[in-house]
Amino acid sequence: MPEEPTDVLVVGPVPVLARAVGVLLVLAGLVAAAAAFPTYLVVGGTEVSPVTGVADALVALVAPVATLAVGVGLLLGRVPRLGLGYAAVAGSLAVGRLLIELYQGHGSTVRPAVEVLAGERVITSSVEISAGWVLGVVALSLTVLAAVVALVAWGRTVMEDGGALDPLRPALAGAAAVLGVGAVLCLALPAADVPDRVVTDPATGLETVVTQEGPQALLERPGLALLGGLLLAGALLLCAVIAPSLRPRLGAVGGLLGVAVFLLAAALTGLRDAARSADVEWTVPGAGLLVVGLGFAGLTLLAWRWRAQRVPSVGA
User: Fold this and answer.
1) pTM: predicted TM-score of the whole model, two decimal places
2) Are 192 and 279 in contact (CB under 8 A)?
Protein backbone atom coordinates (compact mmCIF):
# COMPACT_ATOMS: atom_id res chain seq x y z
CA MET A 1 0.00 0.00 0.00
CA PRO A 2 1.18 3.57 -0.55
CA GLU A 3 2.38 5.52 2.45
CA GLU A 4 -0.33 7.52 4.20
CA PRO A 5 0.49 10.95 5.66
CA THR A 6 -0.28 11.41 9.34
CA ASP A 7 -0.11 15.20 9.47
CA VAL A 8 -3.84 15.84 9.16
CA LEU A 9 -4.64 19.34 10.37
CA VAL A 10 -7.82 19.94 12.35
CA VAL A 11 -8.96 23.55 12.77
CA GLY A 12 -11.97 24.45 14.88
CA PRO A 13 -13.99 27.66 14.87
CA VAL A 14 -11.67 30.67 15.05
CA PRO A 15 -12.54 32.78 18.12
CA VAL A 16 -13.07 36.50 17.91
CA LEU A 17 -9.98 37.12 20.04
CA ALA A 18 -7.78 35.37 17.48
CA ARG A 19 -9.19 37.49 14.69
CA ALA A 20 -8.64 40.57 16.87
CA VAL A 21 -4.94 39.62 17.02
CA GLY A 22 -5.00 39.57 13.22
CA VAL A 23 -6.44 43.09 13.18
CA LEU A 24 -3.74 44.31 15.56
CA LEU A 25 -1.00 42.72 13.45
CA VAL A 26 -2.39 44.29 10.28
CA LEU A 27 -2.46 47.71 11.95
CA ALA A 28 1.04 47.22 13.36
CA GLY A 29 2.38 46.24 9.93
CA LEU A 30 0.76 49.19 8.19
CA VAL A 31 1.91 51.71 10.80
CA ALA A 32 5.46 50.27 10.85
CA ALA A 33 5.61 50.50 7.05
CA ALA A 34 4.46 54.13 7.18
CA ALA A 35 7.02 54.90 9.91
CA ALA A 36 9.94 54.06 7.62
CA PHE A 37 9.47 57.00 5.26
CA PRO A 38 9.12 60.29 7.21
CA THR A 39 11.91 61.80 9.33
CA TYR A 40 12.68 59.56 12.31
CA LEU A 41 14.48 61.96 14.69
CA VAL A 42 16.31 65.26 14.50
CA VAL A 43 19.53 64.59 16.41
CA GLY A 44 21.94 67.46 17.01
CA GLY A 45 20.30 69.37 14.16
CA THR A 46 20.64 66.42 11.73
CA GLU A 47 17.46 64.93 10.28
CA VAL A 48 17.60 61.15 10.35
CA SER A 49 15.40 59.15 7.98
CA PRO A 50 15.62 55.36 7.51
CA VAL A 51 14.68 55.43 3.81
CA THR A 52 16.57 57.39 1.17
CA GLY A 53 16.34 54.93 -1.72
CA VAL A 54 14.86 51.69 -3.02
CA ALA A 55 17.32 49.44 -1.18
CA ASP A 56 16.61 51.22 2.10
CA ALA A 57 12.87 50.79 1.55
CA LEU A 58 13.24 47.06 0.92
CA VAL A 59 15.19 46.63 4.16
CA ALA A 60 12.80 48.77 6.17
CA LEU A 61 9.75 46.86 4.91
CA VAL A 62 10.96 43.31 5.69
CA ALA A 63 9.37 43.09 9.15
CA PRO A 64 6.22 45.19 8.40
CA VAL A 65 5.35 43.13 5.31
CA ALA A 66 5.80 39.85 7.20
CA THR A 67 3.63 41.13 10.06
CA LEU A 68 0.98 42.37 7.64
CA ALA A 69 0.87 39.05 5.76
CA VAL A 70 0.56 36.99 8.95
CA GLY A 71 -2.09 39.39 10.28
CA VAL A 72 -4.21 39.11 7.14
CA GLY A 73 -4.07 35.31 7.29
CA LEU A 74 -5.09 35.33 10.94
CA LEU A 75 -7.89 37.82 10.31
CA LEU A 76 -9.26 35.49 7.63
CA GLY A 77 -9.11 32.55 10.07
CA ARG A 78 -6.43 30.56 8.23
CA VAL A 79 -4.16 28.36 10.38
CA PRO A 80 -4.83 30.59 13.41
CA ARG A 81 -2.15 29.21 15.73
CA LEU A 82 0.54 30.07 13.22
CA GLY A 83 -0.51 33.70 13.46
CA LEU A 84 -0.89 33.55 17.24
CA GLY A 85 2.59 32.05 17.62
CA TYR A 86 4.06 34.76 15.43
CA ALA A 87 2.23 37.49 17.35
CA ALA A 88 3.35 36.15 20.74
CA VAL A 89 7.01 36.07 19.70
CA ALA A 90 6.98 39.40 17.83
CA GLY A 91 5.25 41.12 20.74
CA SER A 92 7.66 39.66 23.30
CA LEU A 93 10.60 41.03 21.33
CA ALA A 94 8.83 44.38 20.85
CA VAL A 95 8.73 45.12 24.60
CA GLY A 96 12.48 45.68 24.87
CA ARG A 97 12.60 47.51 21.55
CA LEU A 98 9.82 49.85 22.73
CA LEU A 99 11.80 50.82 25.85
CA ILE A 100 14.89 51.46 23.71
CA GLU A 101 12.86 53.67 21.37
CA LEU A 102 11.47 55.66 24.30
CA TYR A 103 15.03 56.20 25.49
CA GLN A 104 16.18 57.30 22.03
CA GLY A 105 13.41 59.86 21.77
CA HIS A 106 13.47 61.26 25.31
CA GLY A 107 16.33 60.06 27.49
CA SER A 108 19.37 59.87 25.21
CA THR A 109 20.28 63.53 25.84
CA VAL A 110 20.89 62.88 29.56
CA ARG A 111 24.20 61.25 28.64
CA PRO A 112 25.07 62.51 25.14
CA ALA A 113 26.94 59.91 23.12
CA VAL A 114 27.76 58.90 19.57
CA GLU A 115 25.02 56.89 17.86
CA VAL A 116 24.60 55.48 14.37
CA LEU A 117 21.01 56.04 13.28
CA ALA A 118 20.03 55.00 9.73
CA GLY A 119 23.68 55.21 8.70
CA GLU A 120 24.14 58.71 10.16
CA ARG A 121 26.84 59.16 12.82
CA VAL A 122 25.32 61.66 15.25
CA ILE A 123 25.84 62.90 18.80
CA THR A 124 22.75 62.90 20.99
CA SER A 125 23.34 66.39 22.38
CA SER A 126 19.79 67.29 21.39
CA VAL A 127 16.96 65.11 20.13
CA GLU A 128 13.63 66.14 18.64
CA ILE A 129 11.05 63.47 17.87
CA SER A 130 9.43 63.38 14.44
CA ALA A 131 6.62 61.50 12.72
CA GLY A 132 8.75 58.43 12.01
CA TRP A 133 9.57 57.92 15.69
CA VAL A 134 5.94 58.43 16.77
CA LEU A 135 4.64 55.94 14.20
CA GLY A 136 7.36 53.45 15.16
CA VAL A 137 6.39 53.63 18.83
CA VAL A 138 2.72 53.15 17.92
CA ALA A 139 3.60 50.11 15.78
CA LEU A 140 5.61 48.52 18.59
CA SER A 141 2.81 49.22 21.08
CA LEU A 142 0.29 47.53 18.77
CA THR A 143 2.60 44.54 18.45
CA VAL A 144 2.91 44.22 22.23
CA LEU A 145 -0.87 44.44 22.57
CA ALA A 146 -1.25 41.76 19.88
CA ALA A 147 1.03 39.46 21.89
CA VAL A 148 -1.03 39.93 25.06
CA VAL A 149 -4.28 39.13 23.24
CA ALA A 150 -2.61 36.19 21.46
CA LEU A 151 -1.64 34.61 24.78
CA VAL A 152 -5.26 34.87 25.93
CA ALA A 153 -6.61 33.51 22.63
CA TRP A 154 -4.13 30.60 22.35
CA GLY A 155 -5.97 28.23 24.70
CA ARG A 156 -9.33 29.11 23.14
CA THR A 157 -8.19 28.32 19.60
CA VAL A 158 -8.68 24.71 18.50
CA MET A 159 -6.01 23.63 16.05
CA GLU A 160 -4.21 20.27 16.14
CA ASP A 161 -2.47 17.80 13.87
CA GLY A 162 -1.22 14.22 13.98
CA GLY A 163 2.08 15.10 15.66
CA ALA A 164 4.21 14.78 12.54
CA LEU A 165 6.81 17.19 13.90
CA ASP A 166 7.13 15.53 17.32
CA PRO A 167 10.13 13.28 16.44
CA LEU A 168 12.01 16.33 15.17
CA ARG A 169 11.17 18.72 18.01
CA PRO A 170 14.14 17.86 20.32
CA ALA A 171 16.67 18.47 17.54
CA LEU A 172 14.81 21.59 16.43
CA ALA A 173 14.79 22.96 19.99
CA GLY A 174 18.50 22.24 20.44
CA ALA A 175 19.44 23.99 17.21
CA ALA A 176 17.18 26.95 18.05
CA ALA A 177 18.72 27.27 21.53
CA VAL A 178 22.26 27.34 20.09
CA LEU A 179 21.27 29.89 17.46
CA GLY A 180 19.46 31.93 20.13
CA VAL A 181 22.60 32.17 22.26
CA GLY A 182 24.56 33.20 19.16
CA ALA A 183 21.95 35.83 18.33
CA VAL A 184 22.14 37.36 21.83
CA LEU A 185 25.95 37.51 21.62
CA CYS A 186 25.77 39.20 18.21
CA LEU A 187 23.14 41.69 19.38
CA ALA A 188 25.29 42.67 22.35
CA LEU A 189 27.64 44.57 19.99
CA PRO A 190 26.78 47.06 17.23
CA ALA A 191 26.09 45.62 13.77
CA ALA A 192 27.67 48.75 12.25
CA ASP A 193 30.53 50.52 14.02
CA VAL A 194 33.08 53.28 13.55
CA PRO A 195 36.44 51.76 12.49
CA ASP A 196 39.67 52.58 14.28
CA ARG A 197 41.87 55.20 12.63
CA VAL A 198 45.56 54.61 11.86
CA VAL A 199 47.75 57.70 12.39
CA THR A 200 51.33 57.88 11.10
CA ASP A 201 53.91 60.02 12.92
CA PRO A 202 55.66 62.06 10.16
CA ALA A 203 58.89 62.29 12.16
CA THR A 204 59.36 58.62 13.07
CA GLY A 205 57.08 56.86 10.62
CA LEU A 206 55.45 54.93 13.46
CA GLU A 207 51.83 54.00 12.99
CA THR A 208 49.44 54.36 15.92
CA VAL A 209 45.93 52.97 16.09
CA VAL A 210 43.52 55.56 17.44
CA THR A 211 40.20 54.22 18.70
CA GLN A 212 37.27 56.38 17.66
CA GLU A 213 34.12 56.63 19.71
CA GLY A 214 31.42 54.52 18.11
CA PRO A 215 27.76 53.72 18.75
CA GLN A 216 26.78 52.39 22.15
CA ALA A 217 26.30 48.65 22.44
CA LEU A 218 22.96 47.15 23.42
CA LEU A 219 23.80 46.91 27.15
CA GLU A 220 25.91 50.09 27.39
CA ARG A 221 22.98 52.49 27.31
CA PRO A 222 21.59 53.63 30.67
CA GLY A 223 18.10 53.71 32.15
CA LEU A 224 15.19 52.54 30.03
CA ALA A 225 17.50 51.51 27.19
CA LEU A 226 19.49 49.20 29.47
CA LEU A 227 16.28 47.64 30.78
CA GLY A 228 15.05 47.31 27.20
CA GLY A 229 18.29 45.65 26.12
CA LEU A 230 18.11 43.14 28.96
CA LEU A 231 14.44 42.36 28.19
CA LEU A 232 15.19 42.02 24.49
CA ALA A 233 18.09 39.62 25.07
CA GLY A 234 16.10 37.54 27.57
CA ALA A 235 12.98 37.44 25.38
CA LEU A 236 14.99 36.43 22.33
CA LEU A 237 16.61 33.50 24.12
CA LEU A 238 13.31 32.43 25.69
CA CYS A 239 11.39 32.63 22.40
CA ALA A 240 14.11 30.66 20.60
CA VAL A 241 13.76 27.84 23.13
CA ILE A 242 9.96 27.83 23.36
CA ALA A 243 9.02 28.33 19.68
CA PRO A 244 9.87 24.75 18.52
CA SER A 245 7.62 23.30 21.26
CA LEU A 246 4.47 25.14 20.15
CA ARG A 247 1.67 22.88 18.93
CA PRO A 248 0.67 22.07 16.31
CA ARG A 249 3.50 22.05 13.79
CA LEU A 250 2.30 25.27 12.20
CA GLY A 251 2.26 26.94 15.62
CA ALA A 252 6.00 26.21 15.86
CA VAL A 253 6.39 27.59 12.33
CA GLY A 254 4.77 30.85 13.44
CA GLY A 255 7.00 31.18 16.50
CA LEU A 256 10.20 30.44 14.57
CA LEU A 257 9.11 32.84 11.83
CA GLY A 258 8.76 35.63 14.40
CA VAL A 259 12.35 35.12 15.58
CA ALA A 260 13.70 34.82 12.03
CA VAL A 261 11.99 38.01 10.82
CA PHE A 262 13.32 40.03 13.78
CA LEU A 263 16.91 38.82 13.34
CA LEU A 264 16.96 39.25 9.57
CA ALA A 265 15.52 42.75 9.85
CA ALA A 266 18.12 43.71 12.48
CA ALA A 267 20.98 42.23 10.43
CA LEU A 268 19.91 43.89 7.19
CA THR A 269 19.51 47.22 9.01
CA GLY A 270 23.12 47.02 10.17
CA LEU A 271 24.27 46.18 6.65
CA ARG A 272 22.25 49.09 5.27
CA ASP A 273 23.77 51.51 7.79
CA ALA A 274 27.29 50.43 6.82
CA ALA A 275 26.53 50.72 3.10
CA ARG A 276 25.04 54.22 3.43
CA SER A 277 27.89 55.86 5.31
CA ALA A 278 31.63 56.02 4.88
CA ASP A 279 31.97 56.71 8.61
CA VAL A 280 30.83 53.25 9.70
CA GLU A 281 31.54 49.69 8.62
CA TRP A 282 29.76 46.37 8.94
CA THR A 283 31.04 44.38 11.89
CA VAL A 284 31.63 40.71 12.60
CA PRO A 285 28.64 40.65 15.03
CA GLY A 286 26.54 42.18 12.25
CA ALA A 287 27.55 39.41 9.86
CA GLY A 288 26.96 36.84 12.62
CA LEU A 289 23.46 38.25 13.13
CA LEU A 290 22.72 37.65 9.46
CA VAL A 291 24.00 34.07 9.74
CA VAL A 292 21.82 33.24 12.76
CA GLY A 293 18.87 34.96 11.10
CA LEU A 294 19.29 32.74 8.06
CA GLY A 295 19.67 29.79 10.43
CA PHE A 296 16.29 30.53 12.02
CA ALA A 297 14.80 30.99 8.54
CA GLY A 298 16.11 27.52 7.70
CA LEU A 299 14.56 26.03 10.85
CA THR A 300 11.26 27.73 9.98
CA LEU A 301 11.34 26.27 6.48
CA LEU A 302 12.24 22.82 7.85
CA ALA A 303 9.33 22.86 10.30
CA TRP A 304 6.98 24.08 7.60
CA ARG A 305 7.98 21.45 5.05
CA TRP A 306 8.36 18.54 7.49
CA ARG A 307 6.02 15.68 6.79
CA ALA A 308 6.15 12.41 8.77
CA GLN A 309 4.86 9.31 7.04
CA ARG A 310 3.34 6.18 8.42
CA VAL A 311 5.23 2.95 7.88
CA PRO A 312 3.45 1.18 5.02
CA SER A 313 1.39 -1.76 6.19
CA VAL A 314 2.40 -5.23 5.10
CA GLY A 315 -0.07 -7.47 3.36
CA ALA A 316 -3.67 -6.74 2.64
Assistant:
1) 0.89
2) no
